[in-house]
Write a structure and sequence with these properties.
The protein is α+β, with helices and mostly antiparallel strands. The chain has 2 domains: 193 residues, Penicillin-binding protein 2a (Domain 2) (Alpha-Beta Complex), CATH 3.90.1310.10; 350 residues, DD-peptidase/beta-lactamase superfamily (Beta-lactamase). 38% of the residues lie in helices and 19% in strands. It has 22 helices and 21 strands. Strands 2, 3, 4, 5, 10, 16 and 17 form a 7-stranded mixed beta sheet that branches. Strands 12-11-21-20-19 form a 5-stranded antiparallel beta sheet, with helices on both faces. Helix 3 packs across helix 4 and helix 14 crosses helix 16.
């Protein structure tokens, strides 16, 4: 009986052990089944990820052409050096060796690697690497595991700083931006091609405004790598899709002349001890609104960003008090000075506050308030035409007295001031109009007659942008039509055929009679003739020019200089507006920029200048010095 019980107990233990063994094998088999059958794709992908890498290929950005088909912005092939991530910390010896070949600090490479947050995408370490450096890297490739050298398109600005704020610049997408873009793609709100690590994006100007058109779609190469991360074989490829081209209204030759005129004049003024901090110049076709040239000085070199800007270059640009990134033509807001007298005069004539022939006496100051001409000049009896040609302050103080600030403000709005022009560029300024409401809102103070006088000559709280003044001059030149200024005339399809064409866009008609406009135009014509404030500037020019000088008071420094013009006087084809920051009197600062632009546009040979008192004359003016009547 005891033996039977013992035998039964032994069998039970064996059964337990057998059950345990079976359960263990069942768990192992279940795990194997789970890993292979259920999670097989996942782990297979992980294994492939350790063996395969995707090397991104940057798409060629679309080109920008000027109005005559000349390339303004393009791309060129360049060597790029990248590192394939291995999930491990980069070997310091490899970084030191690579830094020596690239002739950059080791920290520069280490910072770029540190900024990379996981993933298998290549880390771009250097762009536009010279052939001699590439040769050294290739010769020591076996010593540089994970380092690759590829040829990719590099954004190229053949004219360096020319129109830099208008054209803009590009840069590689950051990790933070990439996260935002991916979220936008998930939400269906992202435009353009897909964006990944290494994608080049437009950062400012037209590059940013038309990024979805210019960018294209990046591609990539799938390569097999060995244990050290060195590419061994290409196993697949996704071809890039180039970006589409855009055509600009800019005339490249005119742009070059405008740029040279600006920088030559700034240098000349500074030699004379005038600060001349910067300048803004824009040329428009008054019959369409097309921008023919646009200069904002100082500028910057967008090639710095395309290649990968250095810390020194970035600090240089960001510490420049003259704001090289700002497109002063569109965003800069300045007192309009005497060019505003065009609006004051048109309002006074239209509302019959004065007749063209009424004579008003200028004794050097106004009889109600002691407000004078800039240098206290007394020009005697003046009619409207002479007052505009001489830019007499006292006469226009009286026009302000008769009009009142409400009418001045009303006609400024009629001409389009106080609102954006609608040009498709970022951060366009709206400007500001002087009014009792504005003063009450901002300063909580009453309005005084003296401030109406100031507003009548373009001072007080009135601010305008150069592009706004170009639109005002276009309205005067073309008979009263306000066009929306534009800089892109066409977007191409991939095959080069037009996808979208842009042309003149009429925004409104000036509510001023033709008779009044003719009187104003006559006065503007006399500005550039002998005896006018810009007579010396345009002396000897075989072209009838209408214009207006201006000197705008600047509370923080030397006065700003304005010159606004159109030509030919009888059949206008171009409007040019120039502003020199802290340039002093408008004729001698801004006017000297306008003349060479008109000479280039109308293909007028520059005059041969005879020496004056043994000294060579100014080739821009035909004189050795320019004297402007200081009444602005």
């Amino acid at each position: 009986m005891l033996k039977a019980l013992y035998k039964k107990k032994k069998t039970t233990r064996f059964d337990v052990l057998l059950t345990i063994v079976i359960l263990v094998f069942a768990v192992l088999l279940g795990r194997v089944f789970y890993l292979q059958a259920i999670e097989g794709d996942y782990y297979r992908g992980k294994a492939e990820g350790n063996r395969l890498r995707i090397l991104s290929m940057t798409a060629t950005r679309g080109l920008m052409y000027d109005r005559n088909g000349q390339i303004v912005v393009g791309s060129r092939p360049a060597y790029m050096v990248s590192m394939l991530p291995t999930g491990k910390q980069a070997d310091p010896k490899v970084l030191e060796q690579l830094a020596a070949y690239l002739q950059v600090p080791v920290k520069t490479l280490a910072d770029k690697i540190e900024a990379h947050k996981g993933g298998y995408e290549p880390i771009r370490l250097a762009s536009d690497v010279t052939l001699d450096k590439v040769t050294k890297i290739e010769e020591h490739r076996h010593e540089l595991p994970g380092i690759t050298v590829d040829v990719e398109p590099l954004r190229y600005y053949p004219h360096d700083t020319m129109a830099s704020q208008l054209l803009g610049y590009v840069g590689e997408v950051s990790e933070e931006e990439l996260a935002k873009v991916k979220q936008a793609e998930l939400e269906g709100t992202n435009s353009g091609g897909p964006i990944g690590a290494g994608t080049i994006l437009g950062r400012s100007g037209l590059e940013k405004m038309y990024d979805s058109v210019l960018r294209g779609v990046d591609g990539g190469r799938q390569v097999e790598v060995d244990a050290s991360g060195r590419p061994v074989e290409e196993v697949g490829r996704k071809h890039t899709v180039p970006g589409r081209n855009i055509h600009l209204t800019i005339d490249l030759n005119l742009q070059k002349v405008a740029e040279k005129a600006v920088y030559d004049q700034l240098a000349t003024l500074r030699l004379q001890g005038i600060p001349a901090k910067g300048a803004a110049v824009v040329a428009l076709d008054p019959n369409t609104g097309a921008v023919l040239a646009m200069v904002s000085a100082p500028g910057f070199n967008p090639n710095w960003f395309a290649k990968g800007i250095t810390t020194e270059q970035w600090n240089q640009l960001n510490t420049d008090a003259n704001h090289p990134f700002e497109n002063k033509v569109v965003t800069g807001e300045y007192p309009p000075g005497s060019p505003f007298k065009i609006i004051t005069g048109a309002a006074a004539l239209e509302l019959k506050k004065v007749t063209p022939n009424e004579m008003i006496y200028d004794s050097g100051k106004h009889w109600l308030i002691d407000k004078r001409n800039a240098e206290g000049e007394a020009l005697g009896w003046l009619d409207f035409n002479k007052a505009l040609a001489k830019s007499d302050n006292v006469y226009f103080y009286e026009m302000g007295n008769r009009l009142g600030i409400e009418n001045i403000d009303k006609y400024a709005k009629i001409f389009g001031l106080g609102e954006k022009t609608g040009i498709k560029l970022y951060d366009e300024g709206r400007g500001n109009l002087a009014s009792p409401e504005y003063k009450r809102k901002v300063f909580n103070q009453d309005w005084y007659l003296g401030e109406t006088f100031d507003a009548a000559i373009g001072q007080s709280f009135t601010l305008v942008t150069p592009i706004q003044m170009a639109v005002v001059m276009s309205e005067i030149a073309n008979g009263g039509i306000r066009y929306q200024p534009y800089v892109v005339s066409r977007i191409d399809n991939a095959d080069g055929t037009p996808e979208e064409i842009f042309g003149p866009k009429k925004l409104g008609v000036l509510q001023v009679s033709k008779a009044v406009m003719d009187i104003v135009r006559n006065g503007l014509r006399d500005v550039t003739l002998e005896g006018g404030t810009a007579g010396e500037i345009f002396k000897g020019l075989s072209l009838a020019v209408a214009g207006k000088t201006g000197t705008a008071e600047n509370a923080t420094g030397t006065d700003h200089g304005w010159f606004v013009a159109y030509a030919p006087y009888d059949k206008p084809r171009i409007v040019v507006v120039a502003l020199v920051e802290q340039g002093g009197f408008g004729a001698s600062s801004a006017g000297s920029i306008v003349r060479p632009i008109l000479e280039e546009y109308f293909h007028i040979p520059k005059p041969v200048v005879a020496p004056v008192n043994g000294k060579k004359g100014d080739p821009k003016t035909g004189t050795s010095s320019i004297k402007e009547q200081k009444v602005d």
